[in-house]
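Entry type: protein chain
Record version: 2
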Amino acid sequence: MADADLDEIRKARLAQLQSQSGGGGGGPQGGPPEDQRKQQEADARASILSQILLPEAADRLGRIRLVKESRAVDVENRLIMLARSGQLRSKVTEEQLKELLGAVKENNERSEEKIVVSRRKGGWDEDDDLFDL
């Protein structure tokens, strides 16, 4: 499975490099070549995910994408990273995906700072300003 993943990644990277070199004078206009590059990246991601996820896990990830796109992208990135590094020995099950979701959630909660506002009781009041006159 790892060899097939690497072949797919190599093909996607080769296609990306060919599209960049083929449109040499394109410049920073961000027109159709940019859209084509994004489409190729999305296709490569979908191909890799279809190879490493069981259908139930892919369905769950799709439902997560409907609710919170950023979390689904984080999970996909982590799955692709694990696949590229060879840490996945078999296809990811729905239970393994749940565990990965929990890890991503904990990681996001740690990175977010919480601001706590504590207010004094018996503090100043707008009416207190009128007595100083």
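Comment: The CA atoms of residues 7 and 34 lie 24 Å apart.
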